[in-house]
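To assess whether the prediction recovers the assembly geometry, we first specified each molecular entity separately, as shown.
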Amino acid sequence: MATAVIPSLLRGLTGGKERVRVSGRNLREVIEDLERQFPGIRSQLTEDGELRSSIAVSIDGEIATGGLLEPVGQGSEIHFLPALGGGA
Amino acid sequence: MAEAGTNGHFKVIGTRPIRHDGVDKVTGRAKYGADYSFPGMLYGKVLRSPHAHAIIKSINFDKALKLPGVKAVVTSADLPEAEDKAEQVGEAAMNPRYLSMNILARGKVLYDGHAVAAVAATSPHIAEEALKLIEVDYEVLPPVMRLEDAMKPGAEILLPNLRNKEEGDNPTNVAQHLQFKRGDVEAAFKAADFVVEREFRTETVHQGYIEPHNAVGIYNADGHATIYCSTQGAFDVRSMSAQVLGIPVGKIKVVPAEIGGGFGGKTTIYLEPLAVLLSKKTGRPVKLVMTRAEVLRATGPTSGSKIRVKMGATRDGRITAAQVWMAYEAGAFPGSPVAAGAMTILAPYAIENVLIDAYDVVVNRPKSAAYRAPGATNAAFASETVIDELAEKCGIDPLDMRIMNGAKEGTPQVAGPPYKRIGFIETCEAIKNSEHYRSPLTGKNRGRGVAAGFWFNAGMQSAATVNIHTDGTASVVTGSPDIGGSRASCAMIVAEVLGIPVEDVRPVVTDTDSIGHTDVTGGSRVTFATGMAVYQAAQDAARQLRERAAKVWEKTVDDVELRDGTLYSKGNGVAPMTIRELAKRLARTGGPITGRATVNARGVGPGFAATCIDVEVDPDTGKVQILRCTVAQDAGKAIHPAYVEGQMQGGTAQGIGWALNEEYVYDAQGHLRNTGLLDYRMPTCLDLPMIETIIVEVPNPGHPLGVRGVGEVSIVPPPAAIANAIYRAVGVRMRELPMSPPRLLKAILESGRAYSPSAQEHQAAAAD
Amino acid sequence: MNSHSMANQAKNLEMSKKVRVETTINGEATEFLCEPRQSLLEVLRDVLELTGSKEGCLTGDCGACTVIVDGRAVCSCLMLGVEAQGKRITTVEGLANGTGLHPLQQKFLEDASLQCGICTPGFLMSAKALLDRNPNPSEAEVRYTLAGNLCRCTGYDKIVRAVLDAAKAMQSGG
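The predicted structure of the complete assembly is given in tokenized form:
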């Protein structure tokens, strides 16, 4: 089991819970599990079968580069963040 | 991946070689985008809206086409209709429909300077004459210039289809609301000994690169287009232009010219699709170059903002709660950097109870674009001023306050996971122990202020190839335009890995056909991510050299070592062979050697900066003079220290300009009044002292050489540091940017505190 | 809204009739044809293909177009091409002696005084005009004289150091 940290404005869908236990070997399966627990949450996180481009995912402190295929380990901590740009 | 662990015994990394592109740049040979010229080339100019907000009823360009020398005119009718959805382009999500509408207005103009049509002619002067002959019928609408007006109930709506989740199907100017929450701020404020709540307002500022935007488009009869332009990201120009033009990515080649500054403002497109469209219509190359007025009116500045910060601390100086309300002006289309503002505003600190509400708001200004640590400077102006006030209430030195509450490895971030190894506390301590901070500041109307800043830095995609030449020298090819000396760092990394002199490595920045996908030069990512790809490509080349030597010596690759440019056989009997000697024999021992690597870089290490600024305020005019300035920044590992210093100094100078003078001035109809560099007042060398730099090196565990990005964060602290210094100089807390002479003078007079006899006279006169 | 009157059209035709100009650029006798409405900067870049002088603002505020005309540092965007008649003009392309860099160029490289490099030609020409007039300027004099050249990348620190270093090198015959 891993832990998903739910963004503040989506906690309405999780009954206010910030940290949620999830199962799945990759991000796609984790989001499916989240949808089973809290119907409606998947469409906030994905669009057309991919992670929404406005959302970045951090797994154990690393920004995931593999999209929904990114592997999730036992005890992993998953954060959903706004995707950001940078200047120079 | 072991080099960061070696005791820092580098031969090339950490030295200061002359950059490889330097001679061309000091002799005027280097080709920037506007320097390109092609046979038969035409010149393009853009017709821009004179209104901040209007419906386009009709466009008639018959007369323009009749002017001798005019070859083509284009409008949004020449662009395909784009989809209305968010899509991943470059670093952030971008709505293709809005991108297209920004290139050429469709239906409505949304800011003074919004592009409406473009003309190609045989001279730039004829093109300008042609613009005057294009007749546009506008229905002028009331402009909405400030976020406060845009957010009011019943406000004039800019984008009729814009919705946000919370307002359901109601049209709105608020594109997005974000929230970050942790713990219980209400309870923590109640339990706090000191609470400070303040509101701040910052004005629109521009990146201010000296080189205006440019593009040359060449459309071939076979449907392929080539774009030459000054850009921070050739691959993003390609994908965005392809999207706007409705043609496949593979039909466009983008050649990045040398670039005269970007700071984030050249990570998007303005002229490129126009150049291709006009070239397609005329069958000739077409060059477009913006004037300075166009740059200021019509390219993305960064957001003006309103930020409320409330912080609570216990008597001993521990910050226990922080609450933030922040709204940023996105300009005509959604996408201000308010999310980054929200994620950076408290980033240097470990605070248990946090609530941040952030709003992205559209207004009739040009669409905002990234500007060096986008969103963070506005935010830090607010938070670092409040922390300074709290420190004063607690009776604690402002640096000690930051160190006491400083984030460390394991501190949870406001949005996201706990930090890995970071150097915030070391950076603050570097300032605390600096000669500057330890030396006293004496004299009237003088004060010293400190502030800190944070930036995430980015990873993302890069590719690199390392070619071994037949004389044992090498070239390293990347797709990262060089705006600060990064190609020198790439050459240095290859030189270090192969053990050859850095002058023997030629760095090349190439086009979109010639290297794998490479994301922008921005986000403080080139030395980190492209450097990582370069490092791996050099390792790949090194391995192939060892394999070739092994083949020649009839040994296995594990028997061969590469050290200092020479290949050695473990064990006896074989004389060592230099890379130079082996290179001569490549053709007859198996063929060429090219190392390659691609990365989607992980292991990013965030960066912190802390800045100390001494000011003297003239209480009669409100003018602020910067007496002394020191910036400390955690670079992880400085590959080329002189260029790391350069980033720190340049960012600091921009932060000082943002603090003291720079702002967009609009009239009531929404016209930009300061469209030139006299009145959009950036710092000159007379406004600044030498900028002292302290490079802190807390290695980033995620990078083979310990590198963190350095390009951005130094712009973040100066506005707050200067505000804190002004307070100590003349007793006035400034909460608006810029802290220009009229504003500061007004605040001094209103404060009722006389710091000089002449100030007292002013007050007496004003009171009469 | 402008109507394109016959008078305007006639005026533009006049302004586009080219004029022959004889001048000296980087020590070479040079002649060119230009329209009266073309600035010296435009002539240098588009007619003579000397693209080393850069366009930053076209209003004389940034100094990126600085050239030396009869010994004075001048914004070439504020001068007309036809005004070059009979003058001696030096651009950045004429700073080096063949392939031997001028001490200012050398110090800019050694001191890492350029990042994007777009302001560099303008600074080099302004600095040369200064050192030709005042071989031993103080830091304050350097900052005062170069305040008409804007740089957005460096914060000026390393530029000022390079000019002072070049002055020292030139004094000791370097």
